[in-house]
Write a structure and sequence with these properties.
mainly alpha
Length: 69
């Protein structure tokens, strides 16, 4: 990969980073609230540009109860 490509297209990396942070933060919050320690650690360590957090939130996360119940 050419360094000039990275310099010319830095906005792609910024957008991917922002995308990852948003999805990862939301998924980590859900995993912590649902006491899913294994998912929390996996989501924290593995960077998949938002794919793993989306999979977790879609298929494995249960809704969080309101009111601290």
């Amino acid at each position: 990969m050419n360094i000039s490509f990275i310099q010319e297209h830095i906005w792609i990396f910024v957008l991917l980073g922002a995308w990852e942070v948003v999805w990862k933060g939301f998924a980590l919050w859900h995993a912590a609230k649902n006491s899913k320690k294994v998912w929390f650690v996996a989501l924290l360590i593995v960077n998949t540009v938002g794919i793993l957090p989306i999979i977790y939130l879609t298929f494995f996360s249960k809704p969080i109860k309101k009111g601290g119940e």
